[in-house]
Design goal:
- The protein is mainly beta.
- Helix content is 0%, strand content 43%.
- The protein has no helices and ten strands.
- The protein has strands at 13-18, 29-33, 38-44, 47-53, 57-63, 74-81, 91-96, 105-116, 119-130, 139-146.
- It has a ten-stranded mixed beta sheet with strand order 2-1-10-9-8-6-7-5-4-3, with no helix packed on it.
- Strand 8 (105-116) and strand 9 (119-130) form a beta hairpin.
- It is extended, with a radius of gyration of 23 Å.
- The relative contact order is 0.19.
């Protein structure tokens, strides 16, 4: 018996790689963690939604076939643009920075998914999306997300105690000013 070993929490990371000529990614690579971006993950049945607010803003939707009631390990191919996809096959859409595909083909591979009851705890997912039907030019993403990753962005620096302030009456009551003392 006994308790299961504690689960290792691997920090959340999302990497994007865009081929030259890919409209959405602009041919660039991107990487995000919770140290530099706000990453929001929402799950509804077999639909995963990801929002990244960092140096760039991205939205990702991953919809598995409607025969599934939750996210499951597997490769899902022949996908078209969410939410205009064939429900029996599934769909995806990765867009951002004002760019998205009008039509697309793509695939999703879920390598690992952990639930606690109905709550998603962790997921490892790769996707590929091509705006050109069956095109060789694609945007690829590699997503690892963990609900227990407590990494956060640095907050505003606190003002230290004991800073010098000019004497009362030395500075104007309104407007901008610079006060120097040596």
């Amino acid at each position: 018996g006994g308790n299961p070993p504690p689960r290792e929490v691997v920090p959340t990371v999302i990497n994007l790689s865009s081929d030259p000529g890919d409209f959405v990614g602009g041919g660039l690579d991107y990487s995000y963690t919770q140290a530099d971006s706000e990453i929001t993950v929402t799950v509804d049945g077999a639909h995963l939604s990801i929002r990244i607010q960092g140096d760039e803003d991205w939205n990702g939707d991953f919809q598995l076939p409607d025969s599934l009631t939750r996210l499951e390990v597997g490769t899902y191919s022949n996908l078209t643009r969410y939410p205009f996809h064939d429900a029996a096959i599934g769909g995806l859409s990765w867009s951002g920075e004002g760019r998205g595909c009008n039509t697309l083909t793509g695939s999703i591979t879920i390598e690992n998914v952990i639930y606690a009851g109905d709550e998603l705890i962790s997921i490892d997912l790769q996707f590929e999306q091509s705006c050109q039907e069956g095109g060789a030019v694609a945007l690829r993403g590699d997503i690892h997300w963990d609900v227990d990753d407590t990494t956060s962005q640095p907050g505003a620096a606190a003002v230290p105690d004991g800073l010098w302030v000019p004497a009362a009456g030395v500075t104007p009551a309104t407007g901008n000013y610079v006060s120097l003392e040596s």
